[in-house]
Structures are given as C-alpha cells and as structure tokens.
Write a structure and sequence with these properties.
The complex is a heterodimer of chains A (655) and B (372). Chain A has 655 residues and is of the alpha+beta class. Helix content of chain A is 36%, strand content 21%. In chain A, the strands form eight sheets. In chain A, strands 12-11-23-22-21 form a five-stranded antiparallel beta sheet, with helices on both faces. Chain A has a four-stranded mixed beta sheet with strand order 2-10-18-19. Chain B has one domain (4-362). Chain B contains twelve helices and two strands, in the order H-H-H-E-E-H-H-H-H-H-H-H-H-H. In chain B, strands 1-2 form a two-stranded antiparallel ribbon. The chains are: A alpha+beta (655), B mainly alpha (372).
C-alpha cells in the first residue's frame, strides 16, 4: 500500500468512528430523547442520606453524659410541589405547624433551596411526634412535604453538674461548616441536615463524634415521599469519647462551689481538679452555667440574648477561657525563679519590715512606699519556705526587684527572668487542652512594656518599666493574667516533682471511624490516652523541695500563721498557696494546692473573681471541701443509685 | 535540528481547551449536593494538568529519536510497576488498579500504554525490512501480551484491549501483511467460547464477565451491575437536542450515576450540552485526531511515524470505547475519556504524548535550505 493511501484510509477511519458515535447519539438524544426525558422525570429513585447517630460522650468511669433522643423534622422537597399548588400547601403546612413559620417564610425557605430541587429543605426542626404523624397522614394534601425522623442531642444531666461548658452543644450545620466539612471529610457523606458540634467537646471532637452517613436508594411517589427502600446503605455511628472528668466529683465540686458562692452572695467562680501524675482533668467547673439542651433545639432569640448579656457570663467557661490576675499564688513562680537564678537559697533570710520605701536619688523626700499585706505589722525574718507559708510581700518584692532599704547592690531576679520562668510553667499561652477557645492569659515583660512607651507626637499614658512594675509582677499583681486551668497545672507540676504535663480532658476515643482513614469492622480504641509532657527537669529537685515545703507550711503552721489555715486537716495533709489579687470590681480570691503532701495525687485551683475578700477566707474553704470530696467520699446511697435517681429527676425535669 | 515554525499550535490549544472544560465540569459536579465528588477533584485535576503540561513542554524540546534507546528500559519499568500493583495495589470499584502515592494515586496501566507505543515503534522501525517475517509478528505480540495480561488480571479488560488496539494500528502502519492480522482475528474469535468458559471458573474474572453480560441485558440486574448502564442512557438521553446547560434539576444532579467524574463524565457532559454540543465536541476531537494523523504523515522517519500512529490508535480507541459505553454501544470496561475524565495518570500520560507528537513535528525536515 502506498503511504498516501494509508493516510487516506486513516482519515476515513477517524471520520467513520465519530460518525458511528454521532449516529448512536442522534438516536439516544434526539429520536429517543423525549422517552429518556420522561424516564428521568418519572424515575422515582432517589439517593437519600441515612444519617449517622452522633457518638456518645462518657465520663472516665463510663457514665453516659449525653443521649441521642428521637425527634421529627418537617421538610419540603422543592421538586415535589406540584405547579400552582405551592401557595395552598405552604399555608396549610404553616397552619399545621401553628403559624410558625408563616406561609411566607416557608415560601422563602423553599425558594432558597430551589437550586437543589431533590434535597429536602428543613422547614421546622423538632416538631412533636403527633404533628409529624398528622403531616404523614395528610400526605395526599401535602405533596412535597415530609416529616422525617431524626435525632436530637439530649444533654440529660443534672444542671448542678455544670458540664455544659465542657460538653458544649451541637446544632444544625452552617453553610460554611457544610462546605468545609464536605471538603475535609469526603467519606462521611456530610449532608446539609447534619448536626455538627458548635462549642466544647462537641465541636472540638466533631470529626470523631460525627459518624459517617450512609446513602440508601429509595423509590418516591409523585410528592417525593419515600414509599419503598430499594437498597439500604448503612451509616456508622460516631465514635465514643471518654472524658477524664469524673462526673461524680464534678457534681460535688460544682455543688460545693455553688454553695460557697451562694453563701457570700456571688455568682461567678471556677474550680479545676487535675491528676498530678498524668495531667488528666478530673473536674472543671465554671459558674454560672447554662443548660445546653436550650441549644440542641434551636434556641429562642430572647433566651440567647439574655444569656449573652448576663453579667455572670454563663456562656464562657471561667476555668479555661477566663483570665484573672493571680495575686499571691504567683509567688510560687517568683520563688522558683529566685531559687533557680541563685537570688534566693533555702537559708537566705530577708527581714520583712512591713514595707519598702523607694526614694528618689535626687530628693530623699520623694518616696514611694510598697506595703506588705500585713502592714503595719512586720512578719520579721523570712526564708523562702516561711515567706511562701506566710505570703510575705516584702520578701518577694526583694527577690523580684531588689531592696535598696537593705542593700542597693543586692542581686534580684528582674522582670525579664521572671517573665521567662512564668513561661516555663506554661503561663502566657494556651496549654493545649482539647477544648476550643482556651485562653492563654498574659505575662508582662520589660520589652512588652517598652513598646507602650510614649512615642513622639503621640500622647499616651504609657511609661517606662520601673522597679515598681517588677515588684507588682513578683507578687502576681499588675498586668499578670492567668486561667485557673493554668494554675492547677502549675500546682500539679510542683506536686509531681517538676513535670509540666499538657492538661487533658479526653481520656480515650473508641469506635469504628477514624477521620480520613475509614471504617474498621469492629469497635476499637482509636485514640488511647498517652500523657503528654510539655517540659520536665527544668526545676532543681532541691529547689522544688523548698517550694513544696513552703506550700506545706502554708497549711500546717500552727494557728493562723500560715495563710492556708482553712485547709488544715490531718486526714488530707494538703499543701497550697492563697492568693488575693486586686482587680477592678473587687479582689479575686484564689487558692491552689495539692494533696496528700507525701504522695501527691490531685492538684486543685479555685478562683472566686471579684470576691472583694481574701483567698484565705473565700477560696481556701472550697478547696478543702473538694479534697474531702475526693479523698473521703461517702455515698449516702450506692453510687449507681445516685446516678439513676439523678437521671430520673432530670429526665422528668426536661420533658 | 529543531524548527519552531513547524510548531502546531492546535496540538497544544485543543488539549488545553478540553482540560479546561473538564475542570469546569468537575467543578459543577462538585457543587451538586448529591454527588460524591468534592471540591478537591477539580483542584487536583487542574494540578495534574499543570504537571502534564510541564512534561509536555519538556518532551517537546526532547528529541524523540532519543526515546528509541530508552524504550526498552521504559517498557521494563512499566512492567515492574504493573507487577507492583498486582502485589500491593489499591482497590476501587471491584478492581485493583492503583498504587497509592499519597496525593497522586498512580495507575501504572496509563503510562504503560505510552511506554508500549514507544517500544513497539522502535521494534517495528528496526524491522522495517522484515515486516513479512513471522518472527516480527510473534515477538511484537509477546511484547503486547505481557503487559496486557498483567492488566487483565487486575482485572481491567478495557485497558488490555487498548494495548491490542495500539498494536493493530501500529502493525498496519508498519506494513505487516494484512493476511496475518486477518488470520489472527479469526483465531481470536474461534477461541472466544473457551476464554468465556475459563472466565466463568475463575472468581477474579467474574466481575469482567458480569459487565459483559450486563451490556447485553442491563435490565437483568437494574440495581446492581446494570445500574450504571441504565442510568447513563437516561442521563445522556434526557439531555435531548439542546441540553440543559447546568440548570437546576437535571438527571445527573440526582447523584444516581456512579463515577460521574471519571468513566461516566461523558454522560454528564452529554446531558448538559445536548446533541448539538456533543457534535461540537466531536468536531473538536476529529480535528485533534486529524492533526495527529498529520504528524504521522509528516514524520521524518519511520520511527516518528509509528510513534504518532501508536498515539493516534491509543487515543482514538479510548475515545470510542468510553463514549460507546456511555451511550450503550460498548460494554462498561473502565476506560477513561482522554483529557476529560478525572484522573492524574491518564491526564498526565495523554498530555505527555502530545509533547512527543510536537517533538516529531518540530524535527520533520531533514534538511532546510536557506530561504531566498
């Protein structure tokens, strides 16, 4: 064959192939087009999502903290509304639902969902079962309208337990969340009707809790109502999350805190209990709280508004999102810094004269006086142990910024090194607990302060860092801001011999779905608990022993000599530190400590912000109660009975 | 010697336009709530296109004659990759065709097609004077059968058929006597019943057999294997004469089609752009294939001519089978539609082959005399 002939044949072949295809397409699309179009229109097969149940959250002993309760949604499938009947259907449906939403609002929802005509659009969530039955019975008069079973989160808890902040709540997926999650979790078949965690553990662990939806092929009637299931795709329930929280302890801590606050006529307060050996948070309470069931059915605007504007800030968790001036509990850090930098030793004595006078070098009469909390009473000679036990301001002023009254050339820690040591203890930035929106607090430094210096031409009240700022910093006043969680963690670090753990609230996750990996055949532990150490060995053991001794003496010194006298209890043998921080709106009362002294198990931090009272009076007794709850818990009824009766009462309460 | 004035803009422009169209369609599909396609699909496709383009321009500059000496190692590499798939491949839709390389799951049978073209071109070009000898027939058949068999075991009947299509096209162009091919065809048809029986007894091939049976009678299992055959026809058919042009409420949006981003993207396109649009698309395909035929015609040497022919057979066969299976003309065999289906291996291989074609074109004149 000649070359030219071959190419002629080749070209003819190309034309021939496409002519055959085009011929067949002419037949399928043009000749049979209306037939297939009719088949498509009468094709009553739809892919429907099979919604997965959300995973369950348990406490560390396996007590169930949240339920999936059955519920009904009223929906409209836009494609199923016959031409010309829309107005009649909307007004009938609106009347059935008690004029809420109105026919006009329904029309609006349907219009917004017209772009996905086969997808059910939710008209009203969580309608009663009787209304749902009514809609189903009236299906001939309500083509396109469906009542679909779904589930709603039921946080069936004793409100006194104050777990709402930790658990958070879930709600219907937002448009942005829907787009994000569809992209991130393609295997989970996210739908626009899914419930998604919005705050707390529900939000932080949503990838685990969410579950994996299935799809089933169903046959629908002309009104888009499913009449037959052709193939069932199974959904996979979300993973189970076990918290480190002990619900029993949590409930007692909450009621202790509530009782103490009630006694002094206050509403706000927070307490954290941490296992010093692992960093597990055993209880974390913030008052006032809210009821997360309000959010699982869409919350009314009025109620949301009142929560938002409540001065007690019930929606934010004071224990890990709230920041407060620490006051004297910060002296533990100042003491560590002093010992580690060699400014202090166990034997070095500083005379507490009740005050320090700083006078101008130019004018001996221009003086600034820094008083101790005992002024005018002096505490006398103090070493580091005694200074911690008695919370000597003068001692820690001297350590932080030096004391010209004793020796103008004496060594001191200085603001920068103090800043460094506060950061070593994990202050100033979030610790990384598995909850959204953890606050980091703030630790000032000289370089930060210098940035506030007045700039030429701009008049502002900023000034330079001076020794008074260092003094304030050394006793936890001034700009220092910490969270109770951070301080509980600092205490745990001192108690356990100098290991700074990352505080954790998730003990383990079990289930079948691993995000992005897929579904396994049987339930297994997906995420076991492994303690995470942020830092260790950064404090000399000898120095640590002195700090521990100081905190111990704060409790054990005879009479009222140590500041933590309200925690004195030989059965518990705690060690700790009080704190009273000046703050706008009244002083914050703090106590932090651990027990037992010889074999530390738990660390506790309690804060009552704006208590206008001292930590020793307001916070320390609460901590003592918490120790009693933990070490000397005596159930009046067997544990399981307490749980059952609580659940029963709360079920009745919410129904 | 390169001659840039021979550069064929259409050989770059048309593939680019088609890839762009593919990304648009994939994006539209990903916006449909019922589809299982996420936004990452069009993004990945665009990314693969960029990689493919880079390779295409590299191969344009690369003298295709150098491929001749590289062809055997490339071929052996492809065989090795296919072996790896068989040992530790990633399974999807009942077949194991992928090696998982993280972001880019590699389907080695795609580059293997091109490597086969490169090797066969060398083989036939070397034996230009001995095309009538039986050893040429036998050896070239062995070269095809080895990868084709490995792909068939996956099991991927469609791709192994592509290997044979490549062989037939190149053998004819190289001048193999037609009587060989005719007798081979008769032999295959005679062997078919035996092969069919053998497939029924081996579990791994029952999937392939199912698909072939379903082609003959989709209604036999309308919710199982026949499902996509029925739904692709409904989808294509409901496009009608003018199509829907991505308006709301179309058949493909119901999400009833499976692999609508890969093997069945043609159905989605056909519903959306209608018969008129499809004729336009075909015109584009015909133009493109004609340009490739032109390369084969103009090639400076036999090697280049055979390369171009192989690529032409590969693309034309794939288009025919894929479109055919979307409109009920061919059994469903899992062949992607070149430049339009989602898939990195296929897209990059196809774009690379356009680089080779351009390279042949740029070097088609042995001597150029100064104009003037």
């Amino acid at each position: 064959m000649r070359k030219k002939t071959k190419f002629l044949l080749l070209r003819s072949l190309i034309i021939l192939v496409f002519a055959v295809l085009a011929g067949r397409l002419w037949y399928v699309q043009v000749v049979m087009g209306s037939y297939y179009k009719a088949q498509a229109d009468t094709s009553k097969i739809r892919l429907e999502p099979v919604q997965a149940l959300r995973g369950i959250i348990y406490d560390n002993k396996g007590r169930q903290l949240v339920w999936n309760a059955p519920s009904w949604d009223a929906e409209i499938v836009p494609h199923g509304i016959p031409d010309g009947q829309a107005a009649r259907i909307y007004s009938l449906l609106s009347r059935l639902l008690g004029n809420h939403p109105t026919a006009r609002q329904i029309a609006k929802i349907v219009k917004e969902n017209q772009w996905q005509p086969y997808e059910p659009a939710v008209i009203k969530q969580h309608i009663s079962a009787s209304k749902a039955m009514l809609i189903m019975q009236m299906h001939t008069r309500l083509p396109g309208v469906r009542a679909d079973p779904t589930t709603v989160r039921d946080y069936n808890l004793d409100p006194a337990m104050s777990l709402s902040h930790i658990l958070g709540y879930s709600g219907i997926i937002g448009a942005q969340q829907y787009a994000d999650m569809k992209r991130l979790y393609p295997r989970e078949h996210i739908t626009s009707l899914d419930q998604v965690g919005q705050t707390g553990i529900e939000a932080a662990l949503d990838p685990y809790l969410h579950g994996s939806n299935g799809t089933e092929r169903v046959e629908v009637d002309a009104g888009e109502r499913p009449v037959r299931t052709l193939s069932r795709g199974t959904s996979v329930t979300g993973d189970s999350v076990y918290l480190t929280i002990d619900a029993r302890l949590q409930r007692q801590v909450a009621s202790d805190l509530a009782a103490a606050l009630n006694h002094v006529g206050l509403r706000r307060g927070a307490a954290v209990v941490e296992d010093v050996r692992t960093g597990k948070i055993l209880a974390m309470v913030s008052l006032p709280s809210f009821n997360n069931n309000w959010f699982s059915t869409p919350i009314t605007l009025k109620r949301y508004d009142s929560l938002l504007h409540d001065p007690g800030k019930p929606l934010s968790d004071g224990a890990y999102q709230g920041v407060y001036a620490p006051g004297s509990i910060f002296k533990v850090i100042t003491a560590t810094a002093a010992l580690q930098t060699g400014v202090a030793t166990g034997s070095r004595i500083v005379e507490d004269t009740g005050q320090i006078r700083l006078c101008s070098i130019y004018d001996a009469n221009a003086c600034q006086v820094f008083k101790g909390w005992t002024w005018p009473r002096p505490l006398g000679p103090e070493n580091v142990v005694r200074a911690l036990a008695q919370s000597s301001d003068i001692y820690f002023y001297t350590m932080a910024g030096g004391n010209p009254n004793i020796d103008p050339n004496m060594p001191y820690i200085g603001a920068n090194r103090l800043h460094h040591w506060a950061l070593q203890f994990g202050l100033g930035s979030p610790l990384g607990i598995e909850l959204p929106g953890e606050a980091g607090g703030f630790i000032p430094s000289a370089s930060w302060f210098d940035k506030l210096k007045p700039t030429p031409g701009v008049k502002n009240p900023g000034d330079e860092w001076h020794i008074g700022n260092t003094y304030n910093m050394g006793i936890g006043q001034g700009q220092n801001q910490v969270t109770p969680l951070q301080m509980a963690n600092v205490t745990a670090t001192i108690a356990n011999g100098g290991t700074l753990y990352r505080p954790r609230i998730v003990d383990r996750i079990t289930g079948r779905i691993t995000p992005r990996k897929g579904v396994s055949k049987r339930t297994r532990t997906i995420l076991p608990f492994v303690p995470q150490i942020i830092r260790r060995g950064f404090i000399d053991p000898g120095n640590l022993a002195l700090i521990q001794e100081g905190m111990h003496e704060s409790v054990t010194l005879p009479g009222w000599e140590g500041t933590s006298y309200y925690v004195k209890d030989p059965r518990i043998d705690a060690a700790g530190k009080t704190g009273t921080a000046e703050a706008t709106g009244g002083a914050n009362a703090w106590w932090m400590g651990y027990a037992p002294f010889n074999n530390p198990q738990i660390a506790v931090a309690v804060v009552v912000p704006n208590a206008s009272s001292e930590g020793a009076y307001t916070a320390a007794p609460i901590a003592h109660k918490i120790f009693e709850d933990y070490f000397h818990y005596k159930p009046t009824k067997p544990d399981w009975l307490v749980d059952v009766s609580r659940q029963l009462t709360s079920t009745n309460g919410s129904a | 010697m390169k001659h840039w004035r021979n550069f064929d803009l259409q050989l770059v422009g048309i593939p680019l336009g088609l890839v762009f169209f593919s990304v648009l369609v994939l994006f539209a599909i990903s916006r449909w709530p019922t589809s299982g396609v996420s936004i990452s699909t069009p993004v990945h496709q665009a990314l693969y296109a960029v990689i493919g383009l880079a390779l295409m321009f590299f191969l344009t500059n690369f003298d295709y004659r150098l491929l001749r000496s590289l062809s055997l190692p490339m071929y052996l590499f492809a065989i090795a990759l296919l072996g790896v798939v068989l040992v530790l491949g990633h399974s999807a839709y009942g077949a194991t065709r992928w090696i998982n390389l993280g972001i880019l799951p590699l389907q080695p049978s795609e580059p293997a097609k091109l490597f086969l073209v490169v090797l066969l071109a060398k083989f036939f070009a070397d034996r230009e004077e001995r095309m009538g000898s039986l050893s040429t027939l036998a050896i070239s058949l062995v070269l095809v059968v080895v990868p084709a068999a490995m792909v068939l075991i996956q099991p991927d009947l469609g791709t192994s058929a592509v290997f044979f299509a490549i062989w037939v096209g190149m053998a004819l162009m190289a001048g193999m006597p037609t009587r060989y091919l005719a007798s081979l065809g008769v032999a295959v048809i005679a062997l078919l019943p035996i092969v069919w029986h053998f497939m029924g007894t081996v579990k791994r091939f029952q999937y392939t057999q199912d698909r072939l049976l379903i082609f003959l009678d989709p209604q036999k299992d309308p919710l199982g294997s026949g499902y996509n055959v029925i739904h692709s026809l409904i989808t294509v058919g409901s496009g009608g004469f003018l199509g829907h042009w991505f308006s709301a409420g179309t058949q493909s949006q119901l999400g009833l089609l499976r692999v609508e981003d890969k093997d069945f993207i043609f159905s989605v396109i056909a519903e959306q752009i209608g018969f008129v649009g499809i004729l336009l698309l075909f015109a584009v395909f015909v133009t493109l294939l004609m340009r490739i035929a032109r390369v084969s015609f103009m090639a400076a040497d036999t090697y280049g001519r055979l390369l171009a022919t192989g690529i032409l057979s590969m693309l034309m066969f794939q288009i025919f089978v894929n479109v055919g299976m979307n409109i009920g003309l061919m059994p469903v065999t899992g062949i992607p539609l070149p430049l339009l289906s989602y898939g990195g291996s296929s897209l990059i291989t196809t774009l690379a082959s356009f680089g080779i074609l351009q390279s042949i074109l740029l070097r088609h004149q042995k001597l150029v005399f100064a104009a003037g």
